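Posting for a labmate who doesn't have an account.
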Amino acid sequence: MNEIAPIRTELPQGAPNQGSEPAEQKRPHNIEAEQQLLGAVLTNNDVYDRIAAILRAKHFYDPVHRRIYEVAEQRIQRNALASPVTLKPLLEDDPGLAELGGPAYLVRLAANAISSYAARDFAQMVHDLAVRRDLIDLGGELVQRAASAEEADKPDELIIATEQQLYQIAETGQAEKGFQSFLTAVTDAVQMANAAYQRDGGLAGISTGLIDMDKKLGGLHKSDLLILAGRPSMGKTSLATNIAFNIAKAYKRGKLRDGSLGAVDGGVVGFFSLEMSAEQLAARVLSEAAQVPSEQIRRGDMTEVEFRRFVEAAKDLEACPLFIDDTAALPISQLAARARRLKREKGLDVLIIDYLQLVRPASAKDSRVNEVSEITQGLKAIAKELDIPVIALSQLSRQVENREDKRPQLSDLRESGSIEQDADIVMFVYREEYYVEREKPSEDDHSPAGLQKSEEWKEKMQRLAGKAEVVIGKQRHGPIGTVELSFEGQFTRFGNLAKEWQGGGGEEY
């Protein structure tokens, strides 16, 4: 058997220049592994299917190997044969290949191929060495930019840019799940049902702390994108804050059924507050927990009893795993990167974004609809990648106000096409009390008709006071319908609404 021609020791054409030959030789690589892996692909094209999920042409150190793999990949993807004979006319004019002996080099690669069963291990090795080279390049670039005194390279921006590049490197080569047997899927479904059964027929997902909503949704499910929409003043942020607080307050860490440690109840919550500051959001949570009106907290207008209750609530909440990021106008790529980092450092079980229209796309698009589409697809990708429920708040268009029945529906979503398509669940917050309150008849009309109208309005207000609805307009794995909740505006708190047979009217239970 002929040996493979030795690879040239000078810097390959197209490889990164690190300044000197000794420095270049320190860059991690394994030419023999690349040669034998290429040989395996050229002798058995089925090998490509095993390694395609983790290996790209850019991962090869030698540029000639890079081009060979690229041409072979293009042919295999077209269901055409990739062999030394079929690649010869496509590469015989390649100057780099000519240095190695021309098309005869392809034959020698095939002759020294590894067994197909070892191909994935060799592919992983080639990929890992490429990642090491990328890290060396990133480190070198960081050193150069940090050493320069250019105004454009501010330290904070440099840290963010480097962090983004690190995440991009980390994401390369992640194996795709691909097809799985029906047995595996059935086993997962049975385990999910068993988890719900162990909770006395309760939830398969994370509890929101709102009983009727949990019954309708079955809790918050992993990998789901939930859209919570409403017009201004309906209480979108309040409901999202309440859910976040309920989940974080119930957090208990323990051993999961797969043996790993994680949340056995409640969860770690990440909250991107793109509109409201972290302090304002914290004040809302404290208002709910301490039962002190939020406007009194802002003004500092509290009695001694209320202030003591406020301080005690703050102490109780210190250990709550609720993390707030109030950076304005975050691009979807940075939002994803920060969510990954939170999951890695603190854990992450639920992610909330307030609100969707304030997230920026990674790059400018030709229309707002396309921008929102990129954002919703990005949020759904985060939910699947991190295996967590993602709740994104969304604004509704003004056309709601022009209808007599102001109860929202799917067509009211701004840029509704992509939002409705990508979301697993779409919910609307609706408080009829808000609209009826603004229809208050004039107090100066003392005529019989005016007095009757005033009386009817008071009766209606009494019936609607302290009540809210969450309209479930779409749910992939459950029914649609309406969930009734209590709402205490002074504490910005949603709660469970007691039914008539339980007594107490609008009281919580």
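Reply:
Got it, the structure tokens are right above this. The chain has 20 helices and eleven strands.
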